[in-house]
Fold this sequence. Notes:
This protein has 76 residues and is α+β, with helices and mostly antiparallel strands. Helices cover 25% and strands 24% of the residues. The protein has a domain at 24-76. It contains one helix and six strands, in the order αββββββ. The strands form two sheets. Strands 3-2-5-6 form a four-stranded mixed sheet, with no helix packed on it. The protein has a two-stranded antiparallel ribbon with strand order 1-4. The radius of gyration is 18 Å and the shape is rod-shaped. It starts with a helix and ends with a strand. Keywords: Signal.
Amino acid sequence: MIRLTVLIVLFTIVLSLQELNAECPPGQYDPGPDCSFEVICGLPSAHSARRHYCDCWCNPGTVRDSITNECVEKCP
């Protein structure tokens, strides 16, 4: 019973570490644990909007196109 508990705990730790070490695609970076709002392209009638992201952010100087989910230099 103790072995099973230890295995479950180790498995959970390994999964957590893999999630923390996930790499971002080129042109994006991990904002770390203090994530907040990333500027994204909104609807075509809007210039930009903000959305809460804790994954990868676009590098400075680019914004996320909410339709294609790609980093672009300006909103379409």
